[in-house]
Structures are given as structure tokens and as C-alpha cells.
Write a structure and sequence with these properties.
This protein is mainly α and about 200 residues long. About 80% of the residues lie in helices and about 0% in strands. Helix 2 crosses helix 5. The relative contact order is 0.24.
Length: about 200
Amino acid sequence: MLAVLLFVLVATLSPGGATALATASGARFGVRRSLPLMLGIAAGLATLAAAASLGLAGVLFRVPHVELAVRLLGTAYLLRLAWQTARGGAPGQATLERPRRFGAGVLLLWLNPKGWAMTLSAAGAFATAVDGPARLALLLGGTFLVGATVSQLAWCTLGGVLGRILTRPWHWRLLNGALAVLLVASVVPLWLEAP
């Protein structure tokens, strides 16, 4: 169990698309208003881990072109989020007037090939730790749910702190630009490692 916890904490706390989005939401809207997005991200990762444990991912990726379709949709979605983040201004001046919702967080993870790779790796690495795929799905789904919730809360809180420090429009442009670049950067490895 300790090995699973360490794997999940490292995987969920490392910077990526979801953490950049949580940071941006925390900066612009605060932690409380960002809770639906954070919980959606955590639920998305947990259900993805459970699906990978049950073998769904293996079946999907055996069907021709599904992996490419997931990568293309995920890239398009992350680039759209990056564009919206880059265009966001200070609170009250932002193009995005309310925080993203629960469904956006779930969709972010289900369309993110990095999330698939992370959960498939966990399912493969810990498959022999429990008896059967159902128990593995419960173990990884629950662990990823807790780990992702903690991670998203930490990154969103950091964003909230930044949101209180930023006082000038150029501060917000700089933060939004940096977070948008991080979102775009999270897409690059998906194409460099592509078959």
C-alpha cells in the first residue's frame, strides 16, 4: 500500500495540465469557487484508474486509431484551455466569468493521454498487489481520488495565494501566460513519445 501511495502522490503532485488549470482557477476565483473543478479532476483520474484496472484501456487501445483519436481530442482540449487561460485577465476583467465546473475536470482527465499513461502504468505495476481486477480498481480508484484531491487542493491554494499577491494587470498577464505555456508544454511529451 505504501508503494501505491507514493506512486500516486508523485504522479498527482507533479506539474501538468490539471495542476496548471487548478492553479489558474485558484488565482482567479479562489479555492472555494474552484472546488467543483478540482473534484471533477480528482473524480476523472479516479474513474480513469478504475477503468484502466478493469482492462477498459487495454481494449480501447487495441481498436485501430483509438489511441490517436484520444491524443488528438486531448491535445485540442488542452490547447483550448491554454488559449482561454492566456486570455484571462484579473478577476472581474477575465474573459472566463465563472470557474470551470465538475464535468470540465472529468473531461480533462478522460481526454488526457498523460492521465491514461499514468493510470495504465499504475494498473500494470500493482496488478499483482491484490486479487483480481475489481479489487485493483477499488484500490487505485480510491488512492487516485484521494491523491488527486490533495494535489488539486495544494495547487489551487497556491493559485489563491498568487491571486492575492497580484495587484497589477501586467502581473495577471504574466501569470496567465505562464500557466498557458505550462498547459501547452504538457501536450508536447504526448507527441514526442507517440508511436
